[in-house]
Write a structure and sequence with these properties.
Largest sheet: 7 strands, antiparallel
Strand content: 35-45%
Radius of gyration: 16 Å
Helix content: 25-40%
Order of helices and strands: HEEEEHEEHHE
Strand order of the largest sheet: 2-1-5-6-7-4-3
Shape: globular
Length: about 140
């Protein structure tokens, strides 16, 4: 994929799969997340509805993660970004949260979710921003070189 193809693909509302190193002898934690990709940065959130998320602790400890986004129908394609954590915001704005949820939910639901998480912060909700340092991509529709 070209950089433009990759950026266009990431602009779509695909569910991503986040992977972060575990803090013990367990394998890496791998979970689906909603994300947004803007200005070369990936944002996603953890710890919704007042629940403490294991991934929050792991992300803060590791300072790095991988995020895989795929198209599960033919022609298959995927993008994996290996990222460093640039920011962990425990008090994000409603607009920042809506930038993520608005990609996946109807407008009223995206607004309600963002407001519920930001109006009365629980301290467990964290909006992470990562900077990709390495990319892995493939589009099965493109001929191999």
């Amino acid at each position: 994929m070209t950089e433009a193809d990759r950026d266009e693909f990431l602009a779509g509302p695909h569910v991503a799969v986040l992977s972060v190193a575990a803090a013990d002898d367990r394998p890496p934690l791998t979970v689906p997340v909603f994300y947004a990709y803007r200005d070369g940065r990936i944002t996603f959130f953890t710890g919704t509805r007042g629940r403490t998320a294991r991934k929050t602790r792991l992300l803060e400890r590791a300072g790095a993660f991988s995020l895989n986004v795929q198209q599960p129908t033919y022609p298959y394609k995927y993008v994996t970004a290996e990222c460093v954590v640039e920011r962990a915001d425990r008090a994000p704005s409603t607009a920042e949260v809506r930038a993520v949820t608005g990609r996946y939910l109807p407008e009223a639901d995206a607004r309600a979710f963002a407001e519920s998480e930001t109006t009365d912060p629980s301290g467990t909700f964290v909006l992470f921003t990562g900077r990709p340092v390495r990319w892995l991509t493939h589009d099965f529709a493109e001929p191999e070189n």
